[in-house]
Amino acid sequence: MSDSLAGLAALRRGIQEARTTGRTLVAVRAWEPPEGEALYLRQPEPSWARLWADDARQRLERAFDLAAGGPPADLRIVRRVVRGSAGPVLCSIAASPDDLLVIGMARPRGPFARLHRRPVHRFVPARAECEVLVVAGPRLLPREARILRRSDLVAPPDRATAGR
């Protein structure tokens, strides 16, 4: 699960499905070293790997805060932070035919965004052993997306006190 808008939409839908069906919600955050496994294996540094794993745990908790105001108290929730590529990790965790896998589908903008994204929304439905529900992220205007991505939104200074 990512903390992108599509990931948050998928988490909200997963919460809704878990409530409706009475299933346990398994929230999964897959992570890899930023430079990739091949480069990391050349000079492995366990302290960096722990740092990235901690960051993944924090992002998972932040996703619950952003999507639902915190983890819902009325659901059984299992949190999993797994090192690996998102597609194979999700397919291995949701391996039972009775599972429901809810994933987000981001809408990349521009040719470079399309080239650098791994299409998890294509990989998982083609290989999963369970039912897959793909949730599209919201459609936004370019300016809206830029504003929502900024995490340091600050109110403009008061004009009356700015000149003093």
From TrEMBL:
A matching Pfam family: Usp
Domain of life: Bacteria
InterPro entries: Rossmann-like_a/b/a_fold, UspA
UspA domain segment(s): 4-135
Protein name in the entry: UspA domain-containing protein
Species annotation: Streptomyces bangladeshensis
